[in-house]
Amino acid sequence: MPLIRKRRAQAEASPSPQSTRRRPSPSSVASSGDEDASHLDGDTQESGTHDQMVKKLIRLALACEYTRQPIRRADINAKALAPNTRAFKHVFNAAQEQLRAVFGMTLTELPTKEKVTISQKRKAQRATGDSQAGGSSSNAYVLTSVLPSTLRTPTILAPPKAPTTASEASYTGLYTFVIAVIYLSTAHRISDGRLETQLKRLNADNYVLGDKTDKILKRMEKEQYIVKVKESETGGEETFDWVIGPRGKVEIGEQGVAGLVRSVYGSRGVEIEELEKRLERSLGEGTFRKKIIEEDDVEEEEGSGADVQQGVQGEKTNGRRTSGRRTSGRGRRRREEEEEDEEEEEEGEEEEEEEDD
Question: How far apart are CA 120 and CA 227, in angstroms?
């Protein structure tokens, strides 16, 4: 038999091997398990990082509020979110939920500082190219209470204990009074001399709270309760006025001023309806008076222009010329403040006479 046929016959006669499934090696099983565990660890680590950022933001907010300092966006990015600064929105919303649920507080954005003087308004217009520069975001926040008015009592919202509860309560009452005086003034703005007069009636024009009054006012200005504005007159004379600061608007506001007035005058037998009318008239007086002053200035400018034209025409006919005289809105505001001071002095004298009787 040929050799080739013999080998072919042997190959046909031998059984074919069965196909067997390959078992995974222990090393491959361990590697797949490690991948699944790494995915789980990554998700857990990510959630843990998010929770840590939320906790850091809440601690930062409480610490800044304790010192009456605003929480700025840059501080949040550096001290609570770094290096994950893009997670600001999610972390901020989660912190807001915990602040409301646990502490009864919320982060409120401060308004931008009001542009009062002409130079400030021009500078803001040059910087933004828009006349509505005050509408931009301040990127600064403070903690405010979300508790209902029935729970906002001294026993629940007590003053801080450092340095002492009594000193903090006195300081809170003082800056609330100063803000109320500014709110109730013309155009929500008061001159430095008139504020000194109001403090003198409380015997607080020189020393108050164990320190100089000027130092206490500087502390209020540093904490953004009030803002001191310097303005130069035409003759080179400088005048200083006080306006409401961003924190004063958020923490006290018109509602806080109204509550202070009600607590002082509500127990003196003044009729409630009459008191509410005066409150509404006084708190709305700032914007209302400001609009009236601006309208009066425009009318007086138009009137002065008409007087000049009449003077020119009279000069052509009679050889005489008359010039219109314009009274500035600032001078009118000063006169109104003097009249209000005189009225307050008369009321004070009447009250003293009644007490003597």
Answer: 13
